[in-house]
Amino acid sequence: MAVAADIASGVCLMAGAGLALVGALGLLRLPDVFARMHGAGIIDTLGVGLIMVGLMFQSGLTLVTVKLILVLAFVLYTSPTTTHALARAALNAGVEPQVDAPPPGDGKGGGEGAPSKT
Amino acid sequence: MFAVTAAAVLLVMAMTLVRAVRGPTTFDRILAVNTFGTLTVILIAVYGFLSGRPDFLDIGLLYALINFIATIAVTKFIKFAHLGGPEEGDMAGDV
Hints:
The complex is a heterodimer of chains A (118) and B (95).
Chain A: H1 2-29, H2 33-59, H3 63-92
Chain B: H1 2-22, H2 26-50, H3 57-80
C-alpha cells in the first residue's frame, strides 16, 4: 500500500513539474501579454494542483493533508481573480491584443498553405 | 523524487524571471512576478517534504495570501494611480 502511494505520488509530482515547465515555456514564447496569461494559468492550476496532490499522497490522512488542501483551494480561487484583474487593467491601459497571425514574411511563407486532399 | 521536482520548479522560476526582465509591457512583469510567487509556494511545500518538516506549509499558505494581495494592489495602483476607494470618474466595480 505504501508502494502504491509512492508510485501515485511520484507520477503526480513528475506530471506537475512537467506541466509547470510547459507553462513556463508558454510564458516565454507566446507573442502577446494576453496569450502569456494562458501559460501562467497552466502553472497556477495544473502545476500547483498536481504537485499538491502528489504531496497529499505522501502524507496520508493527517493534518498536513488538510493544510495542503487549504493552500490548493486558496491558489485555485485567487489565480483566476488575479488574471482577470490583470487582463482588464491591460485592456484599459490600451494594450492591443494580437488577434491575427503575423503575415508570413520570413522563409517559410508560401509553402505552408492548406494541404491538398486529392 | 522531491529533489527532481524542486529542481524543475527552480528552472521554471528562472524562466519566469526572464520574462519579468524582458517583458515589453508592465503587465508582463506583473504576471511574471505573480507566477513567481505561486512557484515560491510550491517550492516551500516541496522543500518542506524534502527536509522532513512539512510544517513549512504554514509559511506557504501565508505567502500565497501575501502574493495575491500584492498583485491586486500593484494592478490597482497601475490602473488608477491611487490605492483608495472609487472616486469621481473611476468605473465603479473595477479593481
